[in-house]
Amino acid sequence: MSQNPDKTPADTPRRMRPCPICSKLSTTEDYPFCSPRCAKVDLHRWLSEGYSIPVVETDDIDDPDTDTFTG
Ligand SMILES: [Zn+2]
């Protein structure tokens, strides 16, 4: 029997990458993001990119029918 002192990889801490969304320090829970929010943002970005959904917010809707309001 020979017990060789093997180097435990757990001894070396993992390199924490910065969050790709806000460049903050990522956490082990939401790796590689810093928070579930950033993970959601990335997911949304990925989805929008895949579906190519134009993100256009049009609050002002021109309704020609409202022209008949004059009476
Ligand atoms: Zn973040």
TrEMBL record:
Residues that bind Zn(2+): C19, C22, C34, C38
Cofactor(s) this protein cannot do without: Zn(2+)
Top-level taxon of the source organism: Bacteria
UniProt entry tagged with the keyword ATP-binding: no
Keywords, comma-separated and alphabetical: Metal-binding, Zinc
Cofactor note: Binds 1 zinc ion.
GO BP terms, alphabetized: regulation of DNA-templated transcription
SUPFAM superfamilies membership: Glucocorticoid receptor-like (DNA-binding domain)
GO molecular function terms listed in the Swiss-Prot or TrEMBL record: DNA topoisomerase type II (double strand cut, ATP-hydrolyzing) inhibitor activity; zinc ion binding
InterPro entries attached to this UniProt entry: DNA_gyrase_inhibitor_YacG, Znf_NHR/GATA
Quaternary assembly: Interacts with GyrB.
Family per similarity comment: Belongs to the DNA gyrase inhibitor YacG family.
Function as written in the Swiss-Prot or TrEMBL entry: Inhibits all the catalytic activities of DNA gyrase by preventing its interaction with DNA. Acts by binding directly to the C-terminal domain of GyrB, which probably disrupts DNA binding by the gyrase.
Name this polypeptide is given: DNA gyrase inhibitor YacG
Organism: Roseibium suaedae
Gene encoding the protein: yacG
